[in-house]
Amino acid sequence: MGSVALSLATFMNVLDSSIANVSLPAIAGNLGVSPTQGTWVITSFGVSNAIAVPLTGWLTQRFGAVRLFTASVVLFVLASWMCGLATSLEMLIAFRVLQGLVAGPMIPLSQTLLLSSYPPSKAGMALAMWAMTTLVAPVTGPLLGGWITDNMSWPWIFYINVPVGLGAAFVAWRIYAKRETPTQKLPIDTVGLALLVIWVGALQIMLDKGKELDWFESSQIVALGLVALIGFVVFIVWELTQEHPVVDLRLFASRNFLFGVLALSVAYGLFFGNVVLLPLWLQQYMGYTASVAGMAVAPVGLLAILLSPIVGKNVSKVDPRLLATVAFAGFGLVMWMRSHFITQADFNTILIPTILQGGAIAFFFIPLSAITLNGLTPDRIPSASGLSNFVRITAGAMGTSTVTTIWENRATLHHVHMVENISRTDIPAMDSFNGLMGIGMSFDQAATQITRLIDQQAFTRAADDVYLASSFLFLCLIPIVWLAKPKKTAGPVDAGGAH
After folding, report:
1. What is the spatial distance between Cα 164 and Cα 170, in angstroms, rounded to a whole number?
2. In Å, how far are 194, 246, 321, 368, 391 from 388, measured between CA atoms?
3. Alpha-carbon distance 207 to 186, whole Å?
4. What are phi and psi of 225, to 5 degrees?
């Protein structure tokens, strides 16, 4: 029951980072703002959540893991309820900021509590089920959010957290209250916290607004980039000189932690960026409805559910670097298959790589977390888990912005090349144009239709380019993970870092 409660809390947390995406038009319309302004509903949660996650270590030492986790879940429920009651964009953004802040410790502490509950021989199996939530939830979020918005109303995407969160908090407190971790009063690094807020906030806003403002052609984006860069450098220097830093950057001195986090964050950025790209392409250029596009991406969880318990059970028996290699090779294969998509691709062609991707997911989180946390003392695991989650969340935001930007830029390039190759002597193109006019379309209507067909080809080729590049990058991560040298352990205790 404890594993189920912790998994539900984690699932609820990760789900909320993506469930509002497909509901933005409804939220913006209901609150009387533009969809562009509505994106702050997403950004506000991401910024506050990314800032709160690294504070997990300090907060755990100050208040205790069980009290902090339970309070985090209860406050998350309260913030979710207030989000549903919001009557203006300003109110919703304020409550989303609160929601992201209180959600920060939930994922790292759910790992810590599971580690304290199971002997090494059983930890892997329990954590295998838990580990799937971080990758299955971002896929489930848009599907569930779309269905709720269409069949109920957008506030219910927040109200559904109330019964789930209260149940998870009640069960977790009943089971873990007597296993509270020791506490001590430590000074808070206020300067470090302020620097963290400044550079993470600037980076997140830059990523969110970059595409809209044409990136570094905008003085606003340049200013945000400089603030993020300077703040980041000063933050690192400050944190490395503090006795009680808000983020323990010295964890990167551990070889396993360094290369484990590097591989985990880059791979997650690639994965999450492509998770966003596929439904966008399907709905905008393949004519799929939201529900059918959801059906094409939802089966990613099938093999993950079947294989994760097996991986969790054997992570202490097989070199985790080998298991991670299987994951990266699997992701590389999936992206290579997608790089061959054409505009005539049928549903099954699109579905097969999605199903195979679930197998790669099963080999992804647990082994990489075993590598990342291996060799760390128990008192450093909350800080290490919080820091690795922070890097992962930031990489996911960067991956999303990078992938969508490259997709649009490549599509523009392909569009120009195709138009250049069309002339009045291009018989097939002219036949198509004349044929459209022959069925009653005006000149402008026929031209618009031809442009639409060119866009469909251009964006499909651009998506293929992104998938091919992603496939290559996944394969490049394989030697990186072998730079770590995980120690032999008696059991899969360190698999608790899965996230």
Report:
1. 10
2. 20, 14, 18, 11, 5
3. 34
4. -65, -40
Measured between its terminal Cα atoms, the distance across the chain in Å is: 20
**Tokens, residue 31:** 């609150």
Q: In this structure, which amino acid lies at residue 448?
A: T
Query: Letter for the amino acid at 132?
Result: M
| pLDDT band, very low/low/confident/very high, at 201 (cuts 50, 70, 90) | confident
Instruction: Write the CB contacts of 435 (distance below 8 Å, at least 6 apart in sequence).
Output: none
Q: How far apart are CA 80 and CA 74, in angstroms?
A: 10
Residue 438 has what pLDDT? 61
DSSP 225: H
Helix, strand, or coil here: 458?
Answer: helix
d(CA 341, CA 21): 25
Residue 330: what are its φ and ψ, rounded to 5°?
-65, -45
Tokens of 431: 């036949």
Percent helix, percent strand, percent coil in the chain, to nearest 5: 80, 0, 20
**Concatenated DSSP letters of 357-377:** HHHHHHTTHHHHHHHHHTT--
Q: What percent of the chain has pLDDT over 70?
A: 83
Can you give the pLDDT at residue 499?
38
Q: What is the DSSP string of 38-79?
A: HTHHHHHHHHHHHHHGGGHHHHHHHH-HHHHHHHHHHHHHHH
Residue of 261 and 178 predicted with greater confidence = 261
The amino acid that residue 73 corresponds to is V
Q: Roughly what angle, to the nearest 10 degrees, separates helices 365-373 and 381-420?
A: 130
User: CA 268, CA 280: separation in Å to the nearest integer?
Assistant: 19
User: Distance (Å, rounded) from C-alpha 444 to C-alpha 287?
Assistant: 22
Report the distance separating Cα 195 and Cα 308, nearest Å.
Answer: 38
d(CA 80, CA 154): 12
What pLDDT sits at residue 425?
45
Residue reference for tokens 């380019």: 465
The mean of the pLDDT values for the chain is: 82
Round to whole Å and give the CA distance between 101 and 45. 8
- Residue in 58, 64, 57 with CA at minimum distance from that of residue 181: 64
381, two tokens = 């695991």
User: Is the distance from CB of 429 to CB of 446 less than 8 angstroms?
Assistant: no
Fill in the amino acid letter for 167: G
Residue 237 and residue 228 in contact, taking contact as beta carbons nearer than 8 Å: no
Neighbours of 461 (CB within 10 A): 19
